[in-house]
Amino acid sequence: MTDALPEALMDSVSGAEMMANLREIARWVKLSGTPEEREALGFVEKRMKDYGYRTQVLLHDAFISLPGKASVLVDGRELKAITHSFSLPSPAGGLSGVPVPMGHGTEADFAGKDVAGRILLLEGMATPAVAQRSSQAGAAGQLHISHHEHIHEMCISPVWGNPGLSTRDGLPSTVVCSVSAADGGAIRDALAAGKSPLVTLNAEVDTGWRKTPILQCDLDGPDPDGAFVLMSGHHDTWYFGVMDNGSANAGMMEVARLVAQRKSSLRRGLRVCFWSGHSHGRYSGSAWYADGHWDELDRRCVAHVNVDSLGGAGATVLENTASMSELWHLAAEAVQSHTNQTYRGKRKARNSDESFVGIGVPSMLGSISEQPGKPAQARNALGWWWHTPHDLLDKVDEANLVRDTRVLLQVNWRLLTARILPLDHARTADALLQEIAAVAGRLEGRFDVSGLVAAATALKTAAEAVAAHAGAVSDTAAAAANAALMRASRALVPADYTDGDRFLHPHALPMPDWATLQPIRDLAATEAGSDEERYAAVDALRARNRVAFALREANLAVAAAKAALSRPSTPGSGGQQ
Q1: Which strand (E) or helix (H) includes residue 299?
Q2: Average pLDDT of span 8-15
Q3: How does pLDDT run across 45-70, given as a tens digit for each residue?
Q4: Rounded to the nearest 10 degrees, what angle do helices 328-338 and 398-417 cross at?
Q5: Across the chain, what does the average pLDDT equal?
Q6: Which ranges of 150-221 does DSSP label H, i.e. alpha helix?
């Protein structure tokens, strides 16, 4: 049900145009809510207007944390160090103590240890999960040891978006600094040798509410109030952030330019958003946008294509770019069209401005290419310069940028021009069936999941029939089918990527696949006949109801799509292959 992809469209991607835009973007350090960020965004807005987009800058309150000066003293000797977004500022004179080695800060590392008031020595980059465990354990400070000589800026808050009254207690309550592998290793070795090095953490952090901008750019489809594809990426940066995220901004602008030149071919609109608050507000921009535009996004947004860190020097691996199940086939087609790699894919993680999962908007991509051979302790494979002052223009390879942008253009073009939305709910149903099968054996005779299996199987069968439809379709039938397929997403995506609440944002912490099933998995892990089983059964029953409801809604929607596509196309009805 997809139209042929115009080869000339892919050939039109201009490395020269993107590099010219990137050189301009690279002139500014774009900290969230600063005048420099706003000035840089003004350049992007002008370009988008030149390309034919209707633009507006939305200013909103955001809770932003900008790290300042930092140092770490060991027995009075100063080490090179940085602090992190959402660290507490250190008290006057610094925070001092003999650190406690805590490994990588896993749950097992914290188990049974009293670290209240202590400074923790931790392996690896600072992360929201470790900050949360440290804060909950009552620690006073965290000193992280980088896995190499470079020290990476990080946002350590697990609270997604702006904190509210219900979530502000989840903000970190520790002073946090990071040092290099060599400097941190010396502290670790001294402790292992029975010594008691006195460590002092000094951190300046500017945290509070400030106005931040979002640039929204619209290219209308045939119906100005109709469906649209959301393509987004953050504009704020650490340092000059030329790869992360200047290159993605340049790629987004290039896709926007080429799509606008072929506006007459579009069946739905393109909305392009450039976020602030990604790096310094835990996705405050996209989260505020999701909350403030919830109804419109629920009614009109067919998919979210996120863009991050394109065209890195040496980034030759594209087979792992992420996608939700519904859009997996689009990612596979695009990656395999522009590389000789077989797409393996991975789930979308709880990061990268994925603020629309509660609404039920399926999403794909983020970073498209990565470096081969990711170090074991690295957060990602985007390059050693990621989140450091070294992320400069020489870290972007023009040929790689063109390649990645072609992938980005292809998936957007498919979503914008397909007569029937290419949402593969059969693959989503199959993923759910696999998750249920993984626990069904341990639940036999204890808890019935056969209803979930039957509903997911029916959904898979009906969705396969929709995907296989190849007949002529009237405009009215196509519109009805597309609206129904979007309704199915609204039921399935929150069941897969949240705990089931469509109006809240899960924390920026790892989540299990099909998180709504977790109480059922917890039940399966209990001993039959135990009180623990009885407690777990209470939550499992509610979880089963939640998943069953999502499947019922999705089945009704896909059945409606199937029925719409089965209507005969009559002469003059606009039917097309």
Answers
A1: helix 294-300
A2: 96
A3: 999 999 999 999 999 999 999 999 99
A4: 140
A5: 96
A6: 181-192
Q: State the DSSP string of 391-438.
A: -SGGGB-HHHHHHHHHHHHHHHHHHHH-SS----HHHHHHHHHHHHHH
Rounded (10°) CA dihedral 189, 192, 195, 197: 50
Q: Looking at the predicted structure, is the pLDDT value of residue 347 above 90?
A: yes
Pick from 561, 550, 541: which is nearest to 455 by CA?
A: 550
* Contact yes or no for 508/158 (Cβ under 8 A): yes
The four Cα atoms 384, 389, 391, 393 give a dihedral, to 10 degrees, of -140
Check: CB of residue 369 under 8 Å from CB of residue 399.
no
- Using an 8 Å Cβ cutoff, are 375 and 147 in contact? yes
- The C-alpha atoms of residue 275 and residue 252 are separated, in whole angstroms, by 12
- Cβ atoms of residues 63 and 295 within 8 Å: no
Taking a C-beta distance cutoff of 8 angstroms, is the pair 72, 143 a contact? yes
Q: How far is CA 508 from CA 4, 94, 312, 541, in A?
A: 39, 29, 25, 27
Q: How many other C-beta atoms lie within 10 A of the C-beta of residue 436?
A: 19
Q: In the predicted model, what is the mean pLDDT of residues 106-116?
A: 98
The pair of structure tokens assigned to 281 is 């507000």
Q: How far apart are CA 275 and CA 294, in angstroms?
A: 16
pLDDT tier at 470, thresholds 50, 70, 90: confident
CB of 281 closer than 8 Å to CB of 65: yes
Residue the block writes with tokens 């990476």: 152
Burial of 289 (0-12, 13-18, 19+ CB in 10 A): buried
Rounded Cα–Cα distance for residues 519 and 539 (Å): 6
Instruction: Tell me how far apart the alpha carbons of residues 454 and 448 are, in angstroms, rounded to a whole number.
Output: 12
User: What's the pLDDT at 570?
Assistant: 61
Nearest C-alpha neighbor of 345 from the set 362, 363, 325, 361: 325
- What is the amino acid identity at position 314? G
Calculate ∠ Cα 474-488-562, nearest 5°: 35
pLDDT over threshold 60, residue 2: no
The yes-or-no verdict on residue 187 having pLDDT over 90 is yes
Q: Return the SS3 of 72.
A: strand
**One-letter identity of residue 129:** A
Strand pairing partners for 202?
Answer: 71
